[in-house]
């Protein structure tokens, strides 16, 4: 992990940058265009969006205007719950790439576990086999959801993007994904700002001469977790990327791990789907 373009290698040999730029709740239009362009200017090469975010066309415009060749960017989108199912997913994919102004994605994810996730996964497998997507994966899948999906999957997911931060580590999920060679990725790594309230992180920021977000994002990487912080402020976009010039000691990594309380700042995946028993067989 030498710099912002350092990458992990997924289970199908595709290279995925450790640090990405998230766009959740970034307003479409000039706001997302300028923030993504700024991120690319700084050196980010991993951009994460989703159809649900409503800003895919802005992300696409930013990529086009940035001057960075498309093939140099690891571009991610996701299929939303109401678009799940085999045919609807294929149609949703076409809509997404049209908005993004590209003919392929580097990673396409199922946004949340749903009763139709197996059918949706078959569509993702088709896109992957056709070369329309370089890697496929899931988002917000817990162990029971992954076990359900893997019952019939021909392709093992390359990535599982989940809520992950010092208060929500999910050791069982980490263990399952490591066992199945599925790369974990963190959304909401900064706990929607709540990290600033944690005394240990305040102390570590002083110790390492870094900001609290930098401590948390560096901790993510040392935990082996890809991370995608979001900001629309140029100085913070840059700050979030300055995490490759220091290393947190093993002792301090463990101290942060001990903060785990299994507390979420986002939705619980077990409460987002509509059939409570389908994943618990």
UniProtKB/TrEMBL annotation:
Cited InterPro entries: AKR, AKR5G, Aldo/ket_reductase_CS, NAD(P)_OxRdtase_dom_sf, NADP_OxRdtase_dom
Cited Gene3D superfamilies: NADP-dependent oxidoreductase domain
Keyword Cell cycle: no
Domain spans labelled NADP-dependent oxidoreductase: 19-260
Keyword NADP: yes
Key words, A-Z: NADP, Oxidoreductase
Family designation: Belongs to the aldo/keto reductase family.
Designated name of the protein: Aldo/keto reductase
Organism field: Clostridium brassicae
